[in-house]
What we know:
Blueprint: H1 3-8, E1 15-19, H2 24-35, E2 39-44, H3 49-56, E3 60-63, E4 75-78, H4 87-95, E5 99-101, H5 102-110, E6 115-120, H6 125-138, E7 144-151, E8 156-159, E9 165-169, E10 184-187, H7 201-213, E11 220-224, H8 228-235, E12 240-245, E13 252-260, E14 263-270, E15 273-279, H9 285-300, H10 305-314, E16 323-328, E17 331-336, H11 341-354, E18 359-363, H12 368-373, H13 375-382, E19 387-390, H14 407-410, E20 417-418, H15 422-432, E21 438-442, H16 448-456
Amino acid sequence: MNSVKQNLLSVPGKTAHLVGIGGVSMSALALALLARGFSVRGSDMNDGVYCKRLREEGIEIICGHFPENVVGADVVIRTAAVKDDNPEIAKAKELGIPVLERAEAWGVLMEAFPEVICVSGTHGKTSTTAMVTCIALKAGMDPEVMIGADMREIGGVVRISDGGLFVAEACEYCNSFLNFKPTVAIVLNIEEDHLDFFSGIDDIIASFNKFVCGTKPGGFVVANADDENVMRAVSSAGKKIVTFALKKDADLTAKDIKYTDGFPSFTLVFKGEELGKIKLSVIGEHNVKNALAAAAAMLGIGVGFSDIYGALSEFKGVGRRMEYKGEFLKSKVYDDYAHHPSEVRTTLEAVRRGHGGRVVCVFQPHTYTRTAALCDDFAKALSLADVVILSDIYAAREKNTIGITSAAIGDKIEGAKCISGFDNIITELCGCVREGDVVLTMGAGDIYKVGEELCRIKR
């Protein structure tokens, strides 16, 4: 670890200014720095829920990015979406204030922990990170946690600790996770995504290979043996590998998987030995895989089956991952973060397995480049729903330089409707939802607001 960066974040009393402080990981970083004795302030273009939480902790937040915001800061930390032309970054460099990217800062903080578990993959990172955290808590550990969604067991997106274990969600976008040096690196799956940054699947696999190569000596990699891209990424890393799988031979497998109302139960098998039965309280085969990955990591650091069984049986998911929002016309309303075709397909298959009625899906595509690159795959996945409504594309960090709209997906799905404006979508839902349906809002943007508002309507 660069000693200059290490020193920047090791001296209490310094002032850290965070650009884009309202994001999930940035807000968690703000609280982690505050707990370490830093004076923390920040700025964001959007004044969202995480900004409100930070203000409750006494952190000053300015809406908008202005050069004067960085004056007096000892270090400036930016989210990956903030580039060098941002006025605050430009001013910081003019003044000679050190600038770190968010993942660099997290990487520095992790260095203080002897055990670091990082969860990577195109899908399932948040749920698996939460499962690992729950197992650690059940086992009496005191983990520091950085996770990408609200987790009820830790009361938010961060848990502060001076213990020996750090559990972190590790994202590949912009190679951010290359700043992390885990003792346990979990790789859940690898698919094409973030094609505004990566050139294609080979580039993505190469990035994951560098990530696992950064695993510290004496550590190990947990890898999905069912995923050929994962095995390509890890096989040449020269690290100890613990595998999990449902279809292929692996160190950790699930035997006799059964579903009750969509909730899976199975026998956990480790190197041929049946450890015992586990019944999950989250739906879908994908969560069986997530549970195997979490169990493999925790068995590898010496946690016993009883704690793994207890934690996984009690785990009920995290925010925006098939999160129950309420009811409308005696139809259950859920929200899910799925924003990649594989995630959409997996979630809809899981809902279908546990529900006999119609599935009404309101999907908000996330970023123009992802929509364009994966348009056909989105259409095939969404066709698993009975009713499909598409909102406008959520721009996130992008501008629509390619002129794409949600119709690129909707035109490929029979009966799908593309509707602009959340009020208009809610009106459509009021006219089409029937008693006994499942209504599912889906996407990584702000589409959850539709479901929340729908549940407020009394009929």
